[in-house]
Design a protein that fits this description.
alpha+beta; 2 helices; 38% strand; Alpha-Beta Plaits
């Protein structure tokens, strides 16, 4: 099981970005969470048993929904002890 934290910067709040991530994560079989951050970024914690699914979702994060403008996506590995059971919006 691989887990990554992604911080998406740009015009990504108020444009449906979290729902975009939720839809694509569920489509690709990725578990985790997505939330708005106080600094205007969106943070997603992504977990999947197939690395290809993570890479596909991260590629979609770089595109974003039509109304967004993605300037950068910072990706880092994340050590977790508990697997996620689903994908959800947490904030």
């Amino acid at each position: 099981m691989e887990t990554r934290r992604c911080i998406v910067r740009g015009s990504v709040q108020g444009v449906g970005f979290r729902y975009f991530v939720l839809r694509h994560a569920r489509e690709l079989g990725v578990q985790g969470t997505v939330r708005n951050r106080a600094d205007g970024a969106v943070e997603a914690v992504l977990q999947a048993s197939e690395p290809g699914a993570l890479e596909a979702l991260i590629d979609r994060l770089r595109q974003g929904p039509r109304a967004s403008r993605v300037d950068a996506v910072d990706v880092e590995p994340l050590e977790t002890t508990e697997p996620f059971e689903d994908f959800e919006i947490t904030g």
